[in-house]
Fold:
Amino acid sequence: MTTTKLKYRAVFMSDVHLGASASSAQEAATFLKRVECEPLYLVGDIIDMWRLRSRWHWPESHNRFVRRVLKMSKRGTKVVFIPGNHDEHARDYAGLNFGGVQIARSAVHTAADGRRYLVTHGDEADVVIRRARLISVLGSTAYDLLVVLNRQVNAARRRLGRRPWSLSSAIKHKVKSACRHIAKFEEFLCEQARARGLDGVICGHIHKAEQRTEADGLLYVNCGDWVESLTAAVEHDDGTIRVIGYHALGVGDVGADERDLEAAEADEPVAV
Ligand SMILES: [Mn+2]
Structure:
């Protein structure tokens, strides 16, 4: 089996949700094993403290992800952890360094082409979460169940030779308020970057991978998540930033090429 590393200037991952049973920690760790980068940004909700508080769930794959991050740091990758709302307690440690992992409230990443990007989890946009945390906790538990259920449905579909189907995205696509929420979220974060004179924003939180250039040239990138969409944002040597998907990378396959993620394939919000 080949183990050629995919080299990127920077890698941005968010919403791994370690501690949640729906986390695809195994795939996230395998992805990290296949990539090489200078800075690695962990853009929040890496550890799901909300979920761990209600039920301790920490299988070996979740350790594997943590070990992989620490190993990269030890080998010289600059690792920046920007906590999200599910691991917000880590925000108290902003400015500190744990085993080579720098903790920051947000960061500004300078790309190879000189463009500067605001890197933040994004929940600061989400007034709803601040106001009604309980609702959002209940919401994300229901979402987890949905994901697990959906996997079982798809295992059955595969046995029948049918294509997999995303139950939650089918439901969520129909929810207008979710769309409005996403639009507001994206708008808010673009505005944050603009106000600071930056060239774009790289965020997570809403579990919706996206890369889009606004009319004024501002770049909006959402890393997606490692629950359903299994995506990350990467910076190429020329400074181009792209969202790539684990499946498109052919990680685990031999000799498969990298392809950019079809935005349409990416999955949606909630559990944010
Ligand atoms: Mn979040």
In short: Confidence is low (pLDDT under 50) at residues 128-135, 252-271. The first helix runs from residue 25 to 34. Residues 6-265 form a domain with the Purple Acid Phosphatase; chain A, domain 2 fold (CATH 3.60.21.10).
